[in-house]
């Protein structure tokens, strides 16, 4: 199993979006064609937000066969803004969506390091290779080279190690000692932290981090904050959070209610573990994700988000 992909990190039955039981792709395409002609965004939202990703792929393919047109391109002609962005997200394969989010995090001036980290830290090595493949197909660029070009120093080593993560057997005791010793000098040595935290099973890492906390009398997050700096500190902080409580980390990201984060996280986790993220969101903010969305968004865009969220907690 890939690093960071133990079964308790992947709740495959805890998604909010399930396959639509009475699925008739030709009927859906007929309704979508009519809705596109009338610029009826409500019908587009009703259909696309209530089908699984696999079903949406069938709809897109059927639309192409019947009309000789690309459904995403057709949506872009009649929609705009946040609603367009969300519905186009829904039409992408999961690995394509993550590839696009990575590309958007690196395009233009500056780099959105935390979005890079979110994806690299919460996805398994196998999934990341699929994402890298999609990235190459979509943008004609090598994802590893792009990451190296957008980052530097030890932070660059960390993100590349995350991209290429692969679990190797190791001793919990030795890993605890290696991480503890790396903190003892005047300047902390990030090497062992990069090597160990990107190349072990999740269950192993849980034990290692608990051991480091016992050895040092502080939480790992406190140690990271004190002993590292800059992007590397951010990288270790996110990685530790994703090892210990990935759903809490994602809930914190959602709590910002920044539209790109809401779209990216809700769509990419809608068929995997959004129920867990919803529960963490409620515990974290004392408000349900459903009601919080209602307070920040409106119109058909809101209706699409609520359909993905599914229900009040």
Automatic annotation (TrEMBL):
Gene3D superfamilies attached to this UniProt entry: Annexin
Keywords (A to Z) from UniProt: Annexin, Repeat
Membrane spanning residue stretches: none
GO molecular function: calcium ion binding; calcium-dependent phospholipid binding; phosphatidylserine binding
GO annotations of cellular component type: cytoplasm; nucleus; plasma membrane; vesicle membrane
Residue ranges the record marks as coiled coil: none
InterPro entries: Annexin, Annexin_repeat, Annexin_sf
PANTHER family assigned: ANNEXIN (PTHR10502:SF8)
Annotated family: Belongs to the annexin family.
UniProt-recorded name of the protein: Transcript variant X1
């Amino acid at each position: 199993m890939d690093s960071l992909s133990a079964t308790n990190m992947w709740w495959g039955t805890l998604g909010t979006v399930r396959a639509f039981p009475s699925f008739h792709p030709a009927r859906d395409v007929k309704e979508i064609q009519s809705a596109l002609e009338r610029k009826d965004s409500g019908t587009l939202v009703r259909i696309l937000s209530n089908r699984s990703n696999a079903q949406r792929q069938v709809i897109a393919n059927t639309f192409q066969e019947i009309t000789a047109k690309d459904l995403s391109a057709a949506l872009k002609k009649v929609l705009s803004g946040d609603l367009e962005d969300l519905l186009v997200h829904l039409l992408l394969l999961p690995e394509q969506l993550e590839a696009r989010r990575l590309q958007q995090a690196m395009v233009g001036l500056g780099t959105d390091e935390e979005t890079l980290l979110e994806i690299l830290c919460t996805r398994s090595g196998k999934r990341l290779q699929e994402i890298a493949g999609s990235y190459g197909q979509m943008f004609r660029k090598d994802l590893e080279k792009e990451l190296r070009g957008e980052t530097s120093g030890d932070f660059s080593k960390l993100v590349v190690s995350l991209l290429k993560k692969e679990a190797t057997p190791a001793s919990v005791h030795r890993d605890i000692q290696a991480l503890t010793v790396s903190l003892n000098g005047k300047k902390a040595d990030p090497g062992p932290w990069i090597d160990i935290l990107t190349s072990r099973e999740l269950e192993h890492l849980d034990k290692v981090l608990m051991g480091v906390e016992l050895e040092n009398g502080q939480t790992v997050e406190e140690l990271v904050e004190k002993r590292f700096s800059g992007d590397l500190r951010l990288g270790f902080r996110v990685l530790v959070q994703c090892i210990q409580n990935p759903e809490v980390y994602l809930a914190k990201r959602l709590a910002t209610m920044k539209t790109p984060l809401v779209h990216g996280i809700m769509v990419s986790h809608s068929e995997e573990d959004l129920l867990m993220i919803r529960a963490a969101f409620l515990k974290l903010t004392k408000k349900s994700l459903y009601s919080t969305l209602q307070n920040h968004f409106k119109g058909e865009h809101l209706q699409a988000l609520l359909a993905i969220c599914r229900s009040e907690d």
